[in-house]
User: What shape does this take?
Amino acid sequence: MAVSLSALASCGRPPLPGAADGSAARPAGDGPVDAPIFLPVAPCLDEAVYATAPRTVTFGFLGTPPGFSYDPNCLAIDAGDTVTFSGSFAAHPIYPSAKRGTITGNPISGTSTGDRKDVVFPGAGFFAYFCGIHGGLDDGSTMAGVVWVR
Ligand SMILES: [Cu+2]
Assistant: This one.
């Protein structure tokens, strides 16, 4: 190897924790190894903003003052649970996010017809979605939500 240790050390910075051997910084004995790590996904940037009920996400022109939104827009469920989306898909076509959260395996499929849709979430992840009309940028800043499957 051509790079000498003295050359590496000359930058003067100590290695980051866990960086020396490539291992993760998670301490041993801190719960199950496969415990999901929280992932901030817009618009749900903190665990505390997630509702755990109801299992129905109502959407449309909602709230006080009213705005185009999903309620609850941040919903935490268990793997295998079903979430019902209720509202006009013609006015608010729903799409799985291509930019936020868990991209592969998102069970939310694009829908632009009907008023009700049941979606089963078989596996863990942060499955983001948005309205094709009022959430056009898919950046989570407008009409969008996340289902956190634990
Ligand atoms: Cu909409």
